[in-house]
Design goal:
It is found in: Cytoplasm. This protein is α/β, with parallel strands linked by helices. It is built from 15 helices and 25 strands. The radius of gyration is 22 Å and the shape is globular.
Length: about 500
């Protein structure tokens, strides 16, 4: 079976897991019945548990689904502490359903898979040794990758049913009122964790900062929490802004960012009250700095900025260049600290942010989205999940979700090292080409032929070459040559959902 982006899909797994093939970026107007969690009624003050061992013994049983958030990114200490206890307790056959998996989690997840503790995973992404392990057939069942908005949708619909959520927070009181804005381990918005807190049958908070009751403002509320555990440390906020959220000094990435800025400012969407989101990746994050000067020069302000937030974005808020920040996650300590002091930086959950089965997600109001990519093909399909070697090394994140903006820009270098970024066909389709309007490289831009209005608006920007995407692909190939075709087995190791829950692609096991 093939879907509408011409990807071969595993018929047996589709029948087994009740999947429909991806058809269109148009979500339609469905009526959705949402689920509700079980409530373990508590009338007293007995929520504080003395240790992780105690709370795991009270909550986790064989065959359950457990979840975590990734707001600490590579500074997370909670995940490994909890998983260590679960593995040592001999618990088996768990489904791991975090909002995403970061590098500090890899070793213990691999150990848990080998010991049968984890037999299923659903996440936004994975990198490093875990991605390599899964790509080479390390787990029997395929991983299911979902965007942030799709994860919210799946939780609300009951497709992901969380039995126990373990949520690290920088503060909490004895009944579980907590936020991400105070304490030594602040990370700002709890946007992804809020879904788990609302829908998990049991919610466990872990904190190194037990404060007086009642703790306000409360992002997670005592009405949602079953247990509170005090630990020595929940995380290192200085490690939030690492990896994919670094700030670039690379001349190539800065040139790409300047070209992206030129595309935005010459588009019909750069006007008073426009809205925008920047993704992770050096060039995408650098756009914010160029955009600031362009807004000052044009004497315009933005109505809101969305998504993962950085200090350059909160600086725009302080300067009055952005009226509101709608914050689902903070990508650095500066942005996290800003949330505590500025009421115009609004914490939002992943459903409000990007759930397609909603009465109005924030992504539906975006004028401009600037996103990065591992690969883009000549049909404008984008891969942010697997490398040129076929190994899982990325995350969907909010990529599919934000790509519905009026102007969706993909920024990427033409080649990385000796590897082409613009290719005839991407290794894995994550975001369909119908969502993508402009591709920006250091050699010029390509405009989706379906956007005749943008071709007219952007074709005469001074110093910005406009090329057919086939020509960019040929230029990339000329620089690095044709790669040896990848070799895969027939076994499916991961499934890629589109944001509406349909199947857009699969990842096969890499042949050694």
């Amino acid at each position: 079976m093939k879907n509408n982006v011409n990807r071969e899909l595993p018929t047996d797994l589709m029948e087994q897991l009740d999947y429909q093939a991806y058809q269109t970026t148009e979500i339609g107007d469905p009526q959705i019945q949402r689920v509700a969690p079980k409530v373990h009624v508590s009338m007293g003050d007995q929520k504080v548990v003395q240790s992780i061992q105690d709370v795991v013994s009270k909550t986790v049983k064989d065959g359950m689904t457990i979840s975590f958030h990734h707001h600490f990114r590579n500074g997370d200490y909670v995940f490994n502490q909890v998983m260590r206890v679960i593995i040592d307790s001999g618990i088996q056959d768990l489904t791991l359903a975090p909002s995403s998996l970061t590098g500090v989690m890899n070793d213990i997840v691999i150990e848990a898979i080998k010991k049968g503790t984890i037999t299923n995973i659903t996440s936004s992404g994975m990198r490093g040794s875990l991605g390599d392990f899964i790509s080479h057939g390390g787990m029997k069942n395929p991983v299911i990758f979902r965007s942030h908005g799709n994860r919210a949708r799946a939780i609300e619909s009951g497709e992901i049913k969380i039995d126990v959520a373990f949520l690290g927070v920088p503060n909490a009181d004895r009944l579980g009122n907590a936020n991400g804005m105070a304490g030594k381990a602040v990370f700002g918005s709890l946007g992804y964790a809020l879904m788990d807190a609302q829908y998990a049958d049991q919610v466990v908070l872990l904190t190194d900062n037990l404060v007086d009751y009642p703790n306000t403002p409360a992002s997670i509320k005592q009405t949602q929490v079953d247990y509170v555990v005090q630990v020595d440390e929940v995380g290192d906020p200085d490690k939030i802004g690492s990896g994919a959220t670094r700030f670039t000094k690379d001349p190539k990435e800065l040139k790409i960012a300047s070209l992206v800025n030129a595309v935005i400012t010459h588009s019909p969407y750069f006007k008073q009250g426009f809205s925008f989101q920047t993704g992770s990746g050096g060039a995408a994050l650098a756009v914010t700095r160029y955009l600031r000067q362009a807004m000052l020069d044009a004497k315009i302000t933005a109505s809101f900025a969305l998504g993962g937030i950085t200090k350059p974005t909160t600086d725009l808020l302080e300067e009055g260049l952005v009226d509101r920040i709608m914050d689902v996650q903070d990508f650095d300590k500066g942005a996290a600290e800003s949330m505590q002091s500025n009421p115009k930086q609004q914490e939002i959950d992943a459903s409000w942010y990007a759930d397609p089965d909603n009465k109005g997600a924030m992504v539906d109001q975006l004028d401009v989205a600037i996103l990065s990519a591992l690969e883009i093909d000549t049909k404008f399909n984008v891969n942010v999940m697997s490398g040129s070697d076929g190994v899982i090394r990325g995350a969907i994140g909010g990529h599919q979700d934000a790509a519905g903006a009026k102007l969706t820009i993909i920024c990427a270098p033409l080649v990385r090292g000796r590897i082409a970024t613009i290719v005839p066909d991407v290794t894995t389709v994550v975001t369909p080409g119908d969502s993508i309007d402009v591709v920006v490289t250091e050699y010029g831009i390509a405009i989706n032929p379906k956007r005749e209005d943008l071709i007219a608006a952007l074709s005469k920007i001074p110093g910005v070459p406009v090329l057919p995407i086939d020509q960019l692909q040929a230029l990339a190939e000329k620089k690095v040559g044709q790669p040896t075709p990848l070799q895969f087995t027939d076994r499916t190791v991961a499934l890629i959902e589109y944001r509406d829950g349909t199947l857009i692609d699969q990842i096969k096991e890499v042949k050694d």
